[in-house]
Design brief:
The complex is a heterodimer. Chain A is built from no helices and 9 strands. By secondary structure, chain A is mainly β. In chain A, the strands form 2 sheets. In chain A, strands 1, 3, 4, 7, 8 and 9 form a 6-stranded mixed β-sheet that branches. Chain B is mainly β. Chain B is built from no helices and 11 strands. Chain B is globular and about 45 Å long. The N and C termini of chain B lie far apart (about 35 Å). The model of chain B has no long low-confidence stretch (mean pLDDT about 95). Classes of the chains: A mainly beta, B mainly beta. At the A-B interface, strand 7 and strand 8 of A face strand 5, strand 9 and strand 10 of B.
């Protein structure tokens, strides 16, 4: 079981807004460590979607946004499109883990209805 | 930046295997390279990381002793190898560049296309 907890699935209709949560604890997100998000479309490798809580790499549409508060972070997708369907993972650092301390959330499957 | 991985493998239990990841488009020795496992229908688990500049290698506890991560700086290539595969090693394996940001911490900014390893008798 991952130390970063994500909902197993979320869904939304085209054009709608969905939010994916990533809940941690005082040893990771709550300790001030940044959260990063990855998108994995069906049959493809993951790609970096958001880094440093809310920053988008070049090429990522501004429909994707991230935020962090307390021991949780969120990824929001506005204007949902069919091509957004896939799996989304959060990632952060935990200071109780050995060597490097990086960890992924369990992932959330986004279904576009 | 590109990370190009070797092709899919089908192996029998007990066989050895080494898969590769060739980097291009950046200074290979200046960034950590990680390996990430994704078992069928499951999430991402990172296995370990290596710094090509000096081959400093760190393993996540579940993978310590199970795999060996290495690099060949002369050809900008990272490897992960198994001495004796098990059926439970069946998974997609990704090599990933780890970016160390002084501001935002560590994250994985470039991913290889993945290498599917199937272990079956």
């Amino acid at each position: 079981q991952s130390v970063l907890t994500q909902p197993p699935s979320v869904s939304g209709a085209p054009g709608q807004r969905v939010t994916i949560s990533c809940t941690g604890s005082s040893s990771n997100i709550g300790a001030g460590y940044d959260v990063h998000w990855y998108q994995q479309l069906p049959g493809t490798a993951p790609r970096l979607l958001i880094y440093g809580n809310s920053n988008r790499p070049s090429g990522v549409p501004d429909r994707f946004s991230g935020s962090k508060s307390g021991t949780s972070a969120s990824l929001s997708i506005t204007g949902l499109q069919a091509e957004d369907e896939g799996d989304y993972y959060c990632q952060s650092f935990d200071n109780t883990l050995s060597d490097s301390g990086l960890l992924f959330g369990g992932g959330t499957k986004l279904t576009v209805l | 930046v590109q990370l190009v991985q070797s092709g899919a493998e089908v192996k029998k239990p007990g066989e050895p295997l080494r898969i590769s990841c060739q980097a291009s488009g950046y200074s290979f020795t200046n960034y950590w390279i990680a390996w990430v496992r994704q078992m069928p229908g499951k999430g991402l688990e990172w296995m370990g990381v290596i710094y090509p500049g000096d081959s400093d290698t760190r393993y996540i506890p579940p993978f310590q002793g199970q795999v060996t991560i290495s690099v060949d700086k002369s050809i900008n290539t990272a490897y992960v190898q198994w001495s004796s595969l098990k059926a439970s090693d069946t998974a997609m394996y990704y090599c990933v560049r780890r970016y160390n940001s002084a501001i935002y911490g560590n994250y994985f900014d470039y991913w290889g296309q993945g290498t599917l390893v199937t272990v079956s008798s």
